[in-house]
Design a protein that fits this description.
By secondary structure, this protein is mainly alpha-helical. It is about 35% helix and about 5% strand. A two-stranded antiparallel sheet has the order 1-2. A two-stranded antiparallel ribbon has the order 3-8. The structure holds protoporphyrin IX containing FE and 2-acetamido-2-deoxy-beta-D-glucopyranose (NAG) (2 copies). The site of one 2-acetamido-2-deoxy-beta-D-glucopyranose has 4 residues, from helix 9. Belongs to the peroxidase family. Ligninase subfamily. It comes from Lentinula guzmanii.
Length: about 375
């Protein structure tokens, strides 16, 4: 009996050692500057990350450049279709910016394309633009408290050509069009909902040009779940002018709502996504996990995972949400202001922040 137990223990230990010997990420390499990483080629990225923080992200903020850099990861990567072409996350939006920034869906993206191009030139950045865009996005989002630490894989080749037009979803697209486009690029409805959670750290400049910097939720500096709550609150007003393409009414002054975000959780239009959307309303950890997994896929569209090197350990570890944050209704609103959309589970019961109704400040 005892001998069998010992034998089992020895075999189990041997199995653990064999498993441990395989994955690359267990390797430890000391860079000349003292950083520890899984692969020597990642060493060059640590100083670049520091420069990104100081010179692009205003010293490590979850501000406009971080938000725009996250949006850019998507607009570069989604330029891929098995039938229509495009190289995915290849940096084509930077290299062929004259062509791609002119696409209608890329409205407002020229600012961050120019800023990243300028940064690459002035900092002698020698990594390829496809890598640079995904690195900047992962570093930028790490500045947002509550964000997951994203994976960063390194080694994308330079882009071969510009992406074709009409591959990037528009806020006035129907939900069917949006889900079909994502499906063509390899994403199911659950993954789309997780990716749209990025609008938790986001604002719009071009939807209503009279109110640039109008956020999609009341906490655009936090990677929290408020976007899932606030997009599901009854819309009562337009924060600026009405009648803009791709915009529907929002629940509070100073906040803007995309038609596409609202359709994703509107039951009669789409039962496929409403329950996923609702499930994140009070599930920060679930949102982090799903977002990280979906971004992991999005960041390497057009590439073979095995051709890239895992340099995730260059990405800063994000701060958790502050203790004062947490899922809530907006001040002076009630549970009944939530428009139930999921047919199979009730929206979680949340308390409103204390105080009178307030408007949301621009970013
Ligand atoms: C159906 C899909 C999507 C549509 C229709 C959509 C649409 C938009 C629109 C219209 C804006 C405002 C742009 C402006 O006027 O300045 C925006 C902003 C943004 N989007 Fe999306 N988006 C989608 C998916 C995504 C995904 C998958 C991500 C990232 C993973 C993303 C990240 C962002 C971010 C971070 C911003 C804020 C940029 C800033 O604050 O400057 N979006 N999106
Ligand atoms: C730019 O970087 C490359 C490779 O890191 C280096 O060989 C070159 O000397 C640098 N050029 C300047 C102007 O710093
Ligand atoms: C969507 O894809 C993810 C990742 O492959 C998977 O875990 C999930 O179950 C899928 N969801 C649906 C609804 O098919």
């Amino acid at each position: 009996m005892a001998l069998t137990g010992l034998l089992c223990a020895v075999l189990a230990l041997a199995a653990v050692q064999i498993v441990n010997a395989v994955p690359q990420h267990n390797k430890r390499f000391a860079c000349a500057d003292g950083h520890i990483t899984s692969n020597e080629v990642c060493c060059q990225l640590f100083p670049l990350v520091d420069q990104l923080q100081s010179d692009l992200f205003d010293g490590g903020e979850c501000g406009e450049e971080a938000h725009e850099s996250l949006r850019l990861t998507f607009h570069d990567a989604i330029g891929f279709s098995p039938t229509k072409g495009g190289g995915g996350a290849d940096g084509s939006i930077i290299v062929f910016s004259d062509i791609e920034t002119a696409f209608h869906a890329n409205g407002g993206i020229d600012d961050i394309v120019d800023a990243q191009k300028q940064f690459m030139a002035s900092h002698n950045v020698t990594i390829n633009p496809g890598d640079f865009i995904q690195l900047a996005g992962a570093v930028g989002v790490s500045n947002c408290p509550g964000a997951p630490r994203l994976e960063f894989l390194f080694g994308r080749p330079p882009p071969a050509a510009a992406s074709p037009d009409l591959l990037i979803p528009e806020p006035f697209d129907t939900i069917d069009t949006i889900l079909a486009r994502f499906s063509d690029a390899g994403f199911n409805a659950s993954e789309v909902v997780a990716l749209l959670g990025s609008h938790t750290v986001a604002a719009a400049d071009t939807i209503d040009t009279t109110i640039p910097g109008t956020p999609f939720d009341s906490t655009p500096g936090l990677f929290d779940t408020q976007v899932f709550i606030e997009v599901q609150m009854r819309g009562i007003l337009f924060p600026g002018t009405g009648g803009n393409q791709g915009e529907v009414e929002s629940p509070v002054p100073g906040e803007i709502r995309l038609q596409s975000d609202s359709e994703v959780n509107f039951p009669t239009i789409n039962s496929r996504t409403a329950c996923d959307w609702q499930s994140f309303a009070n599930n920060q950890a679930g949102f982090q996990t799903a977002f990280r997994a979906a971004m992991q896929k999005m960041a390497i569209i057009g590439h073979d995972r095995n051709s890239l090197v895992d340099c995730s350990d260059v990405i800063p570890v994000p701060n958790p949400l502050p203790a004062t944050a947490g899922p809530h209704l907006l001040p002076d609103t009630i549970q009944g202001d939530i428009e139930q959309a999921c047919a199979t589970a009730p929206f979680p019961v949340l308390a409103a922040l204390p105080g009178p109704a307030t408007s949301v400040a621009p970013v």
